[in-house]
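Aim 2 progress update. The chain analyzed this quarter is reproduced below.
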Amino acid sequence: MNSYDFLVIGSGPGGYVSAIRASQLGMKTAIIEKYPTMGGTCLNVGCIPSKSLLDSSHHYENLLHNFEEHGIVIQGDVKLDLDKMMSRKSAVVEQTTKGLDFLMKKNKIEVYEGIASFIDANTIEVNDGKKSKKVTAKNIVIATGSKPTKLAFIDFDGDRIISSTEALKLKVIPKHLIVVGGGVIGLELGQVYNRLGSDVTVIEFQDRIIPNMDGSLSRELAKVFKKSGIKIMTNHKVKSINKKNNIVSVVAENSKGEDQLFEGDYCLIAIGRSAFTKGLKLSNIAVETDKRGRINVNENLQTSVPHIYAIGDVIKGSMLAHKAEEEGVFVAEHICGQKPHIDYNLIPGVVYTWPEVASVGKNEEELKEIGVSYKVGQFPMRALGRSRVSSDLDGFVKILADSDSDEILGIHMIGARCADLISEAVVAMEYKASAEDIARISHAHPTFSEAIKEAALAATENRAIHI
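Predicted structure tokens:
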């Protein structure tokens, strides 16, 4: 029976990063993955393939609608090859997962393929469907991630009523895609197929899309989506979903208590994700979970069994790859006696639509709820020279700062390249920067990042220069 210092169950961003850091710190390390390819949801059916389709569909949209103003005229019909677009997506995924195989070998991490289940607190059985083997470890990390959440009254059929997994590999472009859920996943995939020619209707239970982000971001993104032809139906509670032949019928109750019928040829259910622990046999080790199936951990990410840790989507908190990565590093370093830290308030959230949406820290609704006095500095992207050059005029940057100390409490942005711009906000807030600190830092011209400086100026005695 092979024995290890550090054993990780799950090879998603949290799991494989944790394993690499443990190996760097000198621990004999192994990782267990039930699928043939490593990378978990993110690399295989999440972050990487969805961004591939977002990029490809963005090129197609620009070709159809935006190139002519740049003096680029296409002669003849523009044709879309969906099979080739999907093949490119698959090639990107394959290249990325093969990169993980290389990293495992480089870091001398042993990889087991199969389903892991606990025999006791130090022993795990790995079953690949043909045979099983046992391994033991001094420290174990559960990083088994999440799966798409189902509606209580309907299951995915993998054909017309689909999850994000199936939406990433459709063989045809839907005529009318109904998206249940106005969060990150639903909006990103909704925009992909809208660009490719689908009519798209988004049905959201709450009063706005991306409901966990600042309300101003939601309003701006909804405006952009509606301009592109996407229908946004907020305050709608889905009551039933039925399929007959190739038609999916969705009945939703609006804010007036009236039932509305929506019909399409595909329905994407994107109401979130749920922690996945199936097959682990946690009852054999008395690891505690909450009512939503998430594993309970303490401030050091230890479960109720101290040498067993849990990270990523399988515990409470935002379900983000980079959050899981930070937790994976934290665990490895904690075991080795280091003093790592994670400030969960400074884990940025990003929506990779176009315009991109990004946020870090507290939003206005949260600050009002906790009674913090704050001031706002906001600057529109359309006032930037760089935005006019690229014709990316939608959006703004908003900075929230403490009314008394001027310390930045939150930065929220929507516009071109905000997924990259948000990192400046994270660095600034990690070092307790004030709005005036950012206002006095030189930003290259012409760049999108100038909007951050201008928003900081706006928050500092309304000193924005270019509005």
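Residues 104 and 371 are 48 Å apart (CA to CA). The mean pLDDT is 97. These observations will guide the mutagenesis experiments scheduled for the next reporting period.
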